[in-house]
Amino acid sequence: MKDLNVEVFADGADIEQMKSAYNNKEVDGFTTNPSLMAKAGIKDYKQFAEDAVKAIPDASISFEVFADDMDTMRKEAEILMNYGKNVFVKIPVVNTKGESLIPLIKELSAENVQLNVTAVYTIEQVKEIVDAVKEGVPTYVSVFAGRIADTGVDPMPLMREAVDVCHSKEGVKLLWASCRELYNVIQADEIGCDIITCPGDVVKKLPNIGRDINELSVNTVKGFAKDIQSSGLAIL
């Protein structure tokens, strides 16, 4: 991990897991989204945000707006940004109707709001975002590389180009979203991606980076032997 330049963020909404990851210095920051909050059983968004920032006062945390229209999104953004200086407001690049939210992104960035622009899938969207945001205002461009790969398309050419586009303006960082496996962390690091968000199961595997793979055969068979013993199954 110490040899990686890419920052690793934990993607989730379990406040206890977030606290543990922060206190144990397992990751560099945190991201949340409505789906993860629903899965974690969050009942009070404002209380969750307040508790998260209180427990994690100096690491980046992204909170997403819930509305689907720009006027209401703006009002939500004003609430979320005030929870702490480490908060990034997540705004999707489009709404459910496919309408571009670039005007809102431009407006908020001009007011020095730290943004995490999410649900990005194309290089055209990346370019529009980078053009819209204010120079020097911290901004994340979250490209869903994992979901792109889920369609059978190699996301690497897009991610490499996105690195160059994002780094053309001060303050903009490229974030590899929808990480699927630990190797994605290595891929993100090799192309110069700034941040990768990882789900809890991938975060747990981070200590495996740099591990000697020659040990894996014996360890794998030991695992089989343990499972055989506990299963009570037999051939003879």
UniProtKB/TrEMBL annotation:
Signal peptide: none
Transmembrane segments: none
EC category name: transferase
One GO MF term: transaldolase activity
Protein name: Transaldolase
A matching Pfam family: TAL_FSA
EC number: 2.2.1.2
UniProt KW keywords: Schiff base, Transferase
InterPro entries listed in its UniProt record: Aldolase_TIM, TAL/FSA, Transald_staph-type, TSA/FSA_arc/bac
Organism (species): Macrococcus carouselicus
Gene Ontology BP annotations: carbohydrate metabolic process
Domain of life: Bacteria
